[in-house]
Known about the structure:
About 45% of the residues lie in helices and about 10% in strands.
Amino acid sequence: xxxxxxxxxxxxxxxxxxxxxxxxxxxxxxxxxxxxxxxxxxxxxxxxxxxxxxxxxxxxxxxxxxxxxxxxxxxxxxxxxxxxxxxxxxxxxxxxxxxxxxxxxxxxxxxxxxxxxxxxxxxxxxxxxxxxxxxxxxxxxxxxxxxxxxxxxxxxxxxxxxxxxxxxxxxxxxxxxxxxxxxxxxxxxxxxxxxxxxxxxxxxxxxxxxxxxxxxxxxxxxxxxxxxxxxxxxxxxxxxxxxxxxxxxxxxxxxxxxxxxxxxxxxxxxxxxxxxxxxxxxxxxxxxxxxxxxxxxxxxxxxxxxxxxxxxxxxx
Length: 316
Ligand code: B12
């Protein structure tokens, strides 16, 4: 293996951009090992690969046309094209690192580790990794927000034994918090809290044809004693949708983009989205909840519910 005295950081970033990444940042693996997002289930680089020194985080935006369309199959399908592209870019970067004489590996992007919190956590938390790599901060709904694209990016990471120069994490929150609250106002699952997301509620929309929906579908089929009912369920459009998800990924990991399309953070919002998404439905009850959250934020010392300030950043 090559000696690491030369700093390859700008070369790696150039390669990542050339291969198609919209954003690229570097996190120090040691810092991530010392600061797991949830210490009970440590999602750390060293758990994946002991020799890892740097984590390269890349992001790719979802095409803006997807947010301007109301077509559900399009919304279910296109995110998976972007996730696939990210995996290809990550593999290209990995081989480029090998050509420089070092070692690297992409991580499983959306696959969750069955040993971590009943299989609900990825091997690394990519959003937290992205904050450590200086790409942005976590928003009210815990999505990563970036200055360039707001939340409208998918993420992937490459671990390497190269010692690269880490980027500096942002100190100030990009998210205006409950004083904006547009994501909370529009969420069809009503899953968003004060820097919290009720995952069970969210996943009914975000993973419409994900593993838990598939299990429920199978249970529904096996639970009915009626032969005609079984035949109808097996031959239903729901089964067709699961087949599409298994074949293409469509609806398995992405689908509900409501909190993304209305988020005003990101240089892209005004140019590509505000004309169709600036108006949002009014709800007195949700507005009232946002007001209460603003009170909680004014007294953060009395608010143990606000976890993860390291990644949320200092509120404006
Ligand atoms: C499992 C998963 C889900 C689950 C759970 C989401 C979640 N919040 O973890 C569900 C199905 C709900 C989901 C939904 C979506 N997801 Co998802 N998901 C993942 C996955 C595979 C793992 C997440 C993970 O490991 N989290 C780690 C833990 C530590 O984070 P956390 O659960 O948020 O925990 C924090 C807080 O909950 C809090 N906390 C923890 N415990 C407690 C307890 C209390 C009392 C309190 C107050 C707080 C608190 O502190 C923790 C540390 O900060 C990642 C891929 C990856 N490898 O990272 C993608 C990922 C996070 N998802 C992504 C996307 C795009 C989505 C959706 C937009 C999909 C869609 N289009 O429909 C929605 C958005 C939902 C949302 N607002 O977060 C992107 C995020 C991109 C971005 N810009 O942020 C990722 C990174 C995938 C990718 N390849 O890009 N997802």
